[in-house]
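Why predict the complex rather than its parts? Because the way molecules touch one another can change local conformation, and only a joint prediction can capture that. The input here totals 578 residues.
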Amino acid sequence: MPRLIDRLSIWVTILRISLEERLVYRGDFALGTLMRFLPIITQIFLWWAIFQSINPTQPEKATLVGYTFPDMVAYYLLTMLGRAFSSMPGLASNIARQIREGEIKRFLVQPVDLIGYLLLSRVAHKLAYYSVATLPFALVFFLCRSFFTDGFPSGMQFLAFILSLLMSFVLGFFLEACIGLAGFWFMEISSLLFVYMLFSFFLSGHMFPLDILPEPWLSIVQYLPLKYLAYFPAAVFLGKVQGAQLWLDMAVLFGWTIGFMVLSRYLYSAGLRRYSGYGG
Amino acid sequence: MEDELERNLVEQTPTMKHPSYLKVWLTFARNSLIREMTFRTNFFLDCLSSTCWTLMNIGFYVLIFQHTDSIGLESGWRKPEFFIFLGTTWIINAIIQAFLMPNAEEFSELIRTGGLDFALLKPIDTQFLVSFRKIHWSALSNLVVGCMLLAYALQTLPWRSSPEWHFSWYTVPLYLLFVGCGVVMLYSLMMCLAATSIWLGRNQSLYDFWFYITNFSRYPSDIYRPGWGLPLWTVFTFIIPVLVVINVPARVLAQPVVPMANQDWWIACFAIVATVIAWFASRWVFKRALLSYRSASS
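Output of the joint prediction:
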């Protein structure tokens, strides 16, 4: 029993230190977040031009794969929110660097688990991020409220949205951790990481709603975990996924999350067996 | 023999005073190529990955054109015209990323570490030295992609029925001129941004800011015209002229005579004026910034 309490206190300390570390540059942070919405402005104009040419007389009524113009803008705003949960800047490259430079030795000696430590510091990072970014996010969503034509989703739908956001955080973490842990086998993972980023940018729905993909891509994307990182939470909020399909998708998301969690554990222990650390 | 030596010396003396800028630049180019060729596999991987990135970006527009036949109502940006626009975007982008971006990034680092001292001591123009020292050769792979896209789009244009596509002897030189103007404008903007790191000590968000500003230039300027985009269009055309960078050359090549032809020529003339102003502005900002430079070393 005392062991559990000791562990808990370690975790709390890690969380607190990382949180303080992250809150040092608040102003820069908030400004940076606000700047990140600038590309949305060009997206709004681009899509307006596209919808205008689809239906010249009534662009507001035109639809593209089930999205009206306000839906499209709302979609982009929501994926920004999704990415704020699921993106893990620097995680994989950091793990690979620790493996390459032997810094990982410290986790073999100290009573702290590498993946647990990284997860906690990432949680702290995200908490710090939200505590600062909530304001710019709220401001932008308030300014853009007219694009959410269906209003606020129902209670159940909103619950599913929050759940999907939280799970997308965990999925994103373990997915990138697995890529980083591949560093036990390859010295340099930057090309692997680039390929992952490339596919995740285009197939997670960050760049466009996945519905506009033609077959067979549309079906392929449905079976990849990437769509849960940006497309899925936004689609849930906009009511694109309903009823049984919603809960099926939630179950699949849960499955992917557990799958990558187990895989990262396996990679870590298998990697440590290969690993040899020299020197101090 | 001695005569020859003497003559050589006499001939060389003036070049010692005024280094040939072309020769110096060629040496920079050679050095960078040697550096990149040391890790050849890495070079090819870099080329491959930036090409993939470009192709995926183009894929997005291919998808869009599955659902619509033009971007904007009667704007003339149909698929072939828009692909000329995209090709131009990637050509200008590749030039910037190959020749200027690595230097702008290093410039802030030079200021922070005090390495700029060495650049100031060299008997050559400092702005030239810091802005052309490195060349990122692998970024030029996007130039190839851009040219291929241009070629693909151009071969469909002569069959365009309305409005008819006019091609005259001055189209290509004009296109190249405006691409050059675009590069100079972006270079000047980048230099101004980089020079701010002399005042700020370190400019970490330089690249971010650059990305967000140039992001506006990647779309046809017509899309900003309706509604509340007009102030945006005005600012990014006349104050920070990023909108003319790609739009003017792409328009010259893709739709020389469409509606608003007169206005197009005005904007084209403006592009040249803006280039000259931007160039002198960057020169001025750079010199002002150098005056405030305090070395970082002991």
